[in-house]
Design brief:
It catalyses: Hydrolysis of terminal, non-reducing beta-D-glucosyl residues with release of beta-D-glucose. About 40% of the residues lie in helices and about 15% in strands. The chain is an alpha/beta fold. The protein has one domain: TIM Barrel. The strands form 4 sheets. It has an 8-stranded parallel beta barrel with strand order 1-2-3-4-5-6-9-12, surrounded by 4 helices. The protein has a two-stranded antiparallel ribbon with strand order 7-8. A two-stranded antiparallel sheet has the order 10-11. Strand 10 and strand 11 form a beta hairpin. Helix 7 runs parallel beside helix 9 and helix 8 runs antiparallel to helix 9. The longest helix is centred in the middle third of the chain and has 22 residues. The structure holds 4-nitrophenyl beta-D-glucopyranoside. 4-nitrophenyl beta-D-glucopyranoside binds next to loops.
């Protein structure tokens, strides 16, 4: 079998985006509503009250965006996601050809520029019609996901060779169904655990069918994170968090099972009406690579009334009450910066799965209010703090490779300042600035830094 993954001789670099965060055009060409359209319309759901209906308007400006990706260097990778409600607007049933046509144009435009596309099938924009039937709490959603995956593959599979099923199903499950801070905004105790199982199942069902259709490089993208206890008293909680955040995904992939500690923390995962015979066997060995999205380490500490309980913890009814220490420095979104956490999670993921790894997202929200003259004389964001973050994390990725982790590629989150979910447009992760009025794209200093870095390392 030919593999289309980077071969690992050097670390390949690229950038990543997600459909709802950049496309806009949310009612165009027959796109159905998604849970994020519905959720973002609720008062208070996003920090600035805004949604993704216009976003970066990449639905119309994708050619310009791909010029920017191509400008990063020869053969650079572009990770994008496909909006399920553009393809099957009601979640199941009728296929919208105009939605497929859009991704067809996008992929052709990428290839024409020498950009290597990798597609993620699900980055949280569930068709609202499926949420109306209980979304990821309904096992049928997993089946519907596999059907949708096949429709997309049938159209794009001749040109897209590296695929991912889900992006960060942890967020979709726990932030969506237990913490209520992401769509669909439900706060229903351990619903997150049940949604998580159906996301695992959806991945497994889609993987079986995609492999049968000839896909050789199918992955899944997780936001795995290191949990570093601050004190010996927090060790138990750290292990429990590692179970619900990390091992709930890597266990089924590597062993076809949820481990005993996870089952203690999330007993519903032992319920045979939820986890049916054969579900986890389907997931075992189903990934050809694993994506790791990394931003920050977590430092659990015994519950302290003066340290706010992180939203994380509200998502896990079964985990011992704890707080998190967040050290300096922090990015603009409040997440601690520590590149050694990336090296640690890559080595741990290698040990747990043995799979080729892609750092499928890493980047920093920065204040972005310092301007200098750009190469064309126009003002350019001087985001030295983002450059420092990226340099240190790329170095940590190289360190993980030296330590034996099979890391093939590193994708910066993200190409464009975009709709940052519950934060609206208030937090910017882009290496390209977007003018809020007319959506003009202006590369930041970090973009130019990345061009030079890719040029000098030949990756
Ligand atoms: C990830 N949290 O999202 C996503 O994959 C991207 O779409 C996103 O833009 C990026 O990271 C930066 O946030 C997350 O609250 C959003 O724990 C929120 C959380 C985690 C991940």
């Amino acid at each position: 079998m030919t593999s289309h993954l980077p071969d690992g001789s050097t670390l390949q670099l690229g950038t990543a985006t997600a459909a709802y965060q950049i496309e806009g055009a949310s009612t165009e060409d027959g796109r159905g509503p998604s849970v994020w359209d519905t959720f973002a319309a609720r008062p208070g759901a996003t920090r600035d009250g805004r949604d993704g209906s216009v976003a970066c308007d990449s639905y119309h400006r994708y050619a310009e965006d791909l010029d920017l990706v191509a400008g990063l260097g020869a053969g650079s990778w572009y990770r994008f996601s496909i909006a399920w409600p553009r393809i099957i607007p009601a979640g199941t049933g009728a296929v919208e050809t105009r939605g497929l046509d859009y991704y067809d144009r996008l992929v052709d435009a990428a290839l024409a520029r020498g950009v290597r596309p990798t597609a993620t099938l699900y980055h949280w924009d569930l068709p609202q019609a499926l949420e109306d039937r209980d979304g990821w709490l309904n096992r049928d959603t997993a089946e519907a996901f596999a059907d949708y995956a096949m429709v997309v593959h049938e159209r794009l599979g001749d040109r897209v060779k590296v695929w991912a099923t889900h992006n960060e199903p942890w967020c979709a499950a726990y932030l969506g169904y237990s913490a209520g801070i992401h769509a669909p905004g439900r706060r229903e105790g351990d619903a997150g655990n049940r949604a998580a199982h159906h996301l695992n199942l959806g991945h497994g069902l889609a993987a079986a069918r995609l492999h049968e259709a000839g896909v050789t490089d199918l992955g899944i993208v997780h936001n795995l994170a290191p949990f570093w206890p601050e004190t010996p008293e927090a060790e138990q909680a750290a292990a429990e968090l590692d179970a619900v955040r990390n091992r709930i995904w890597t266990g089924p992939l590597a062993h076809g099972a949820y481990d005993d500690e996870l089952l203690r923390v999330a007993p519903v995962l032992a319920d045979p009406t939820l986890v049916r015979d054969g579900d986890l066997a389907l997931v075992k060995g189903s990934a050809d690579w694993i994506g790791v999205n990394y931003y920050t380490p977590f430092r659990p500490t015994p519950a302290d009334p003066d340290v706010p309980v992180h939203t994380e913890i509200e998502a896990y009814p079964g985990v011992s009450p704890i707080s998190f220490v967040v050290r300096e420095p922090r990015t603009d979104i409040g997440w601690e910066t520590d590149a050694s956490g990336l090296e640690a999670i890559l080595v741990q993921t290698h040990e747990r799965t043995g799979l080729p790894i892609i750092v499928s997202e890493n980047g920093a929200a920065c204040v972005d209010d310092t301007f200098v003259d750009g190469p064309d004389g126009r003002p350019m964001v001087d985001d030295q703090d983002r450059i420092d973050y990226l340099r240190d994390h790329i170095a940590a990725t190289e360190a993980a490779r030296k330590a034996g982790a099979d890391v093939r590629a590193y994708f910066v989150w993200t190409l464009l300042d975009n709709f940052e979910w519950a934060e609206g447009y208030t937090k910017t992760f882009g290496i390209v600035h977007i003018d809020p009025e007319d959506l003009t794209r202006t590369p930041k200093a970090s973009y130019h830094w990345l061009v030079e870095h890719i040029g000098s390392t030949g990756s």
